[in-house]
Amino acid sequence: MTTTTLLRPRVDTTLAARFARSAAATGAGAAMPTGAFAAWLEQRAAAHRFRVDRIPFAELDGWSFRDDFGTLGHRSGKFFTVEGISVTVGPEPGLRWRQPIINQPEVGILGILAKEFDGVLHFLMQAKMEPGNPNLLQLSPTVQATRSNYTKVHRGADVKYIDHFVRPGRGRVLADVLQSEHGAWFLRKSNRNMIVETDEDVPVDEDFCWLTLGQIGELLHRDNVVNMDARTVLACAPTEPAEHGALSSDTEVRSWFTAERSRHDVRVDRVPLTQVTDWIRTPTRIEHVGQRYFSVVAVSVQADNREVTSWTQPLIEPCARGVVAFVTRRFEGVPHVLVHARVEGGFLDTVELAPTVQYIPANYAHRGAGRRPPFLDFVQSADPSRVSYEAVHSEEGGRFLNAESRYLFVAADPDQAPDDPPPGYRWVTPGQLNSLVCHGRYVNVQARTLLAALNCGAARI
Description:
It comes from Streptomyces muensis. This protein has 461 residues and is an alpha+beta fold. The chain folds into three domains: 15-48 and 106-235, Alpha-Beta Complex (Nucleoside Triphosphate Pyrophosphohydrolase); 51-97 and 268-318, no CATH class; 250-266 and 321-455, Nucleoside Triphosphate Pyrophosphohydrolase (Alpha-Beta Complex). It is 17% helix and 34% strand. The protein has ten helices and 24 strands. The strands form four sheets. Strands 6, 7, 8, 9, 10, 11 and 12 form a seven-stranded mixed sheet that branches. Helix 1 crosses helix 5 (213-219) and helix 6 (228-235) packs across helix 10. The radius of gyration is 22 Å and the shape is globular. The N and C termini lie far apart (55 Å).
């Protein structure tokens, strides 16, 4: 008599090895040679007509400032709104500020389709135009769509390959986690980050290509090639870095993080955009009186390969380029990164784990030495020999205009980054960060970019 069981293994122990094999594949076994990628991307750019123009708010089609709260929203009630928030951190009187912010409550899908070719996992990546990208066209996930997009509120074309991520039984889920986006510019925004493997024969659209994880890692060394949405999904890839120990146990790290969330008293209230103090509205922008932080602007877009080929929309434009860095050290040969439990007004759970440094230096230029954020001066003045990874990556091009950050891993000595770091900071291993990223809203989007560089083999520390 044959006995069948309903049970299955809780964990696929082969996944990490399969991703590691793909990360090691940069030449042989790749469907497209990496050397051919730049020409392919240029060809895709030349095949389409893209144009982005700044316009006054009055020329936005379907968007308007509502009389009641001054909210900037779309007539459909979908997509997103630009609203005001008031943030108080700590007990009264506390740190206080008001700012505009994007409110996009719907959860989108960032999905990468995976398929094995000759024993090596490949990932279907898209050459996608986003109006805020400095170079417009970048490498994105297979699917990068808000719910409004894939339910066709805009009455445009279908989102390609969306069925693999929303229809049950179309593939094997390798990663699926709800992750936050930029807490300084989005109010409690989350996207579903997915990697789904298929055995089907997948017709490849001309704007898509198969790449190994290692090839994507090579492209992560190039400025403004791999977009933010691809980076955050790849950070969720199941990996197992070789580590024989850590300064803190996993339980100790989680306990510290829970304590950080508990000790921060953060209150966020939605307020009328017209009552956001220290911000002024002109016909073309909403900006800070000190010309710091960011502005809200409007653009007109043409892109003949998008689901809708022309539209207008607001975008957030930061005042200058940011600097995002993990300070690193090795303890008894095991690499560690210094994470920061960072408060941002748009986070759902008060704090998330951020890189050691995550700032726009221009916002602090008026402050004297000793009054700037911890480790910022060290990272900015670091000797190049200490920098193991550096590239400029743009942030979410669908909502942010020319939002770029310089991403780095910077090695430190004990006198520059002590064993016992300042309050709010903690040494963790890349493996510990990988385990935490499996939980939604633990690791912020900037830290996930640097984790993606590790997962794809672009960075070593």
